[in-house]
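User: quick one - fold this with glutamic acid bound?
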Amino acid sequence: MNYNALAELLYPNIKTTIDDLEKKYPERGLKENTEVTRFAPSPTGRMHLGNLYASFIPEVIARQTGGVFILRIEDTDQKRIIENGIELGLSDLEHYKYIIDEHPIKGGNYGPYVQTKRLDIYHTVAKYLVSIGKAYPCFCSEDDLTHMREIQEKRKDRIGYYGHYTKCRNLSYDEIKKRIDNNEKWVLRLKSNGDINKTIIFKDLIKGNIELPENDLDQVLVKSDGIPPYAFAHVCDDHYMRVTIVTRDDSYISSVPYHVELWNACGFKMPKFAHLLPLNIKDGDSIRKISKRKDPQAAAVFYHQKGVPVEAIKLYFATLMNSNFDEWYIQNPNKSYRDFEFSFSKMSKTGALFDLDKIINISKNYISRLSAKDVYNNLLNWSKEFDKDLERLIEKYKDYTIKTLNIEREQKKPRKDFSCYSEIKEYIWYMYNELFITPTYEWQAINDINQIKEILNDYINNYFKIEDDKDTWFYKMQVLSEKHGYAKNVKDYKENPNNYKGSIIDISMVIRVAITSKSMTPNLYEIMQLLGMEEIRRRINML
Ligand code: GLU
Ligand code: ZN
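Assistant: Sure. Structure tokens for the protein plus glutamic acid:
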């Protein structure tokens, strides 16, 4: 068989050669250990945490090695595509502040970055494989293949296009030409020389060495519409994008022998591979892969709407990726996860379990370390999108809001009550006069309104002065307590409970609830300082 003639017959319009492609997409000339990684989603729309985690890993590796991170869109499966899928996916990644060096909209020297725009590249490589006798056209129809499968089932043979079932493997040039001239449909198949009884050893960066049976199926490289399935496309793409580490879903492991055969057939040097275990979630008693459909808390927009800081989620990913990150971060609380050295070898071999409580916890700690000004700016950004009333309010009272947010912040043990920006309003609303209208008071031990009024009037007329410093303020509270029959400290009360109606705790609670309506607030002295005399009086008189 004259394979060159066959290649010309099958791909008459392809004039480029793989040498041309080598020149067009040269090696990147990066230093050793500098990694080129990519994230290669289908354009099926918004990202969920599983996608974001799967893109966090290659992004982090590219950044920490001074390499390149690529976003490539795998749109060869036309059924799964949605409109604007690329833009939506990209905007989610950008919201997470992933630094993407090359992507479909920005471009780059190794593009296009959308698979359906790369058909000439695939066909060039396909033509090359035909020309060296490693690929051939197959004219089997769906019916032929169904028929073959039925025979295989009846004979209890393995299913697939292999061995003596490869009907089209040895068609002559003349036969092929006749059928092509006849406009018969064909697909291009790999001429496998694998042996199912032999094994290959494959080195995975996470799992280590894996032994798998060789591939012996003549799988489809290019479909009759000219579009390649995933396997052949990824080989061409990762080679000509000069990717050095392929990170992808663990479900591809079983196809690795076929992929290895393809890389070798093309004569391309294989990159390193890291197969990622899915992010799992507990569902009743069982554990399953996280799903956009079943798990609303898996959608990226869920966190966006709640206003969980993107950095907190990335810190969570960092703890998932390398178990030693947690300890490092405790020792380096003011560093960025970017300063940590991630490695594939420290990744779990059993997969990660999604844990919403952990995200919340990380987020609380993260927000607690921000300056009041940063919290303010983040809150403002969040409210611009999700709470226009709050936006107006905190813009109107900018400095006041920053001071409010600074209560028990920017200190050694800062407050840790906010886990996300959507929660902040419920912690600070009472600081705004115009929102403090008909509050629900959370009275505690002292709940008789006459007694409450008596204490408050005494306090406001005879004790409280806005200019008092913290110690004086507290001292006066003690005097007020004793005057009304309450111990000036908890110790006195505990020693002689029968001598008192209660303790200073009950008295300060009355003031706290009268002024904020809440039984739990951060530092009451600071709250009162911010509210000011006039507003404190107004609130007391409201009762
Ligand atoms: N497009 C593939 C997917 O969404 C990605 C495979 C890869 O990363 O190589 O599963
Ligand atoms: Zn065939």
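One thing worth noting: Residues 138-140, 167-168 surround zinc ion (ligand 2) (CB under 6 Å).
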